[in-house]
Design brief:
Strand order of the largest sheet: 3-2-1-4-13
CATH superfamily of the largest domain: FAD/NAD(P)-binding domain
CATH class of the largest domain: Alpha Beta
Largest sheet: 5 strands, parallel
Helix content: 25-40%
Radius of gyration: 22 Å
Oligomer: single chain
Strand content: 15-25%
CATH topology of the largest domain: FAD/NAD(P)-binding domain
Number of strands: 13
Number of domains: 3
Order of helices and strands: HHHHHHHEHEHEHEEHEHEHEEEEEEH
Bound molecules: iron/sulfur cluster
Shape: globular
Number of helices: 14
Structural class: alpha/beta
Length: 373
């Protein structure tokens, strides 16, 4: 037993109005989980979460804005480190994927997308007795495999994938097109669409074809001087990974640091590791100069999230690689939500969620809806 996990549980005050729980997008019953940990009732503690992917939350949630940041013991500089407890619990007492009820017995359920939301839903409805098929053309949880291992250890993902693959949930390696959803809705009692985000956004400037995609960057093949364009978690992942491999890295972002969508803790890590930031700089042109690239950026002025003025004040940054890490376009599946087919549900990124915890929350809400029908 990890003493530090037990120490975290011991210091919880079991607040009557637990702010940690309020701040959790899943409303996890944190005080009661910690009580069960204190009593060494680990399986019961895991069961309180109601899903299988707590270890992912423990690694990937913005804890400072959630349970950790909300704990009343922050006032004494001694907040309960719930993410540590969550990681330990799910690692040592993983959820068993077996049937637990017969609420959905006789129902055929199809899940389009083998990411966090799709698999959370698949496990939940399988546990309720449904016959479940997941369509996924790539490896299960494939987008999480692009997160650098310093943020999410590969073994955690491998274990989760292995557990799903060895369960009775059917996995079909097949790409489903948006036009096929209506047919699936006729073949299955219920369809859950969790296909994730669309294609990666391009820089939208002359010379954009010279940029490296964030996916290529995350394969870890860059060297020399690297400029990462973007301000989200993917941009910071790219920057930290390139830095860890010996590159000189500068992040270029068109707004202020405060407006960056990336978690502040990740930005702080990047800074501590020596990543440089140029904020209020928008890329306007990318050119080749001999063996190098030259990115021209223009100073911007922003007053709020809606307005951004690009000035004529420009400068050039010469480097070996420019990485486009501007996030992704909306999935072509998203517009299907307007069709409102009664037995088709949507969740995760395709429905607007952006965090792992949102993907899980959508899946749990949809699975509950099904069980209540
Ligand atoms: S806010 Fe902190 S002390 Fe209070 S119940 Fe939550 S974890 Fe325990």
């Amino acid at each position: 037993m990890d003493n530090s996990v037990q120490q975290q549980a011991q210091k919880c005050l079991a607040c009557k109005k637990p702010l940690c729980k309020v701040a959790c997008p899943l409303g996890n019953d944190i005080p009661n989980v910690l009580q069960l940990v204190k009593n060494q009732q680990y399986r019961q503690a895991v069961a309180l979460f109601g899903h299988a992917f707590g270890e992912l939350c423990g690694y990937l949630c913005p804890h400072q804005q959630q349970c950790l940041g909300a704990c009343v013991l922050n006032a004494k500089g001694n907040a309960v480190n719930f993410p540590l407890v969550e990681r330990w619990l799910f690692h040592n007492s993983p959820v068993e994927i077996c049937q637990k009820s017969s609420t959905l017995q006789g129902k055929k359920v199809c899940v389009v997308g083998g990411g966090v939301s799709g698999l959370t839903f698949a496990i939940k409805v399988f546990q309720a007795g449904a016959d479940v098929t997941v369509f996924e053309p790539n490896k299960l949880l494939s987008t999480l495999y692009t997160i650098p291992s310093f943020r999410l250890p590969r073994q955690v993902l491998d274990n989760l994938v292995e557990r799903v693959q060895s369960s009775p949930i059917k996995i079909v390696c097949q790409q489903v097109q948006p036009s096929q959803i209506a047919t699936l809705a006729e073949q299955y009692h219920f369809v859950y669409v969790a296909t994730g985000v669309g294609e990666a956004r391009t820089l939208g400037i002359p010379g954009q074809e010279l940029a490296t995609t964030y996916q290529q960057c995350l394969l870890g093949k860059l060297c020399g001087n690297v400029v990462v364009v973007g301000g989200g978690n993917t941009a910071i992942d790219c920057a930290r990974l390139a830095k860890s491999q010996g590159c000189n890295v500068t992040v270029v972002y068109r707004r202020s640091e405060e407006e960056m969508p990336a978690f502040q803790t990740e930005v702080d890590h990047a800074k501590n590791e020596g990543v440089l930031f140029q904020t209020h700089q928008a890329p306007v042109c990318l050119e080749k100069q001999g063996q190098n690239l030259c990115l021209t950026v223009a100073k911007t002025v922003s007053h709020n999230r809606k307005s951004l003025q690009i000035t004529n004040e420009t400068h050039q940054i010469c480097c070996d690689f420019v990485v486009s890490a501007l996030g992704n376009n909306t999935s072509p599946f998203a517009s299907l939500q307007q069709q409102a087919l009664p037995n088709v549900l949507f969740g995760g990124d395709v429905a607007g969620g952006s965090l792992v915890v949102h993907a899980i929350r959508d899946a749990l809400l949809c699975a509950t809806k099904l069980e209540e029908r």
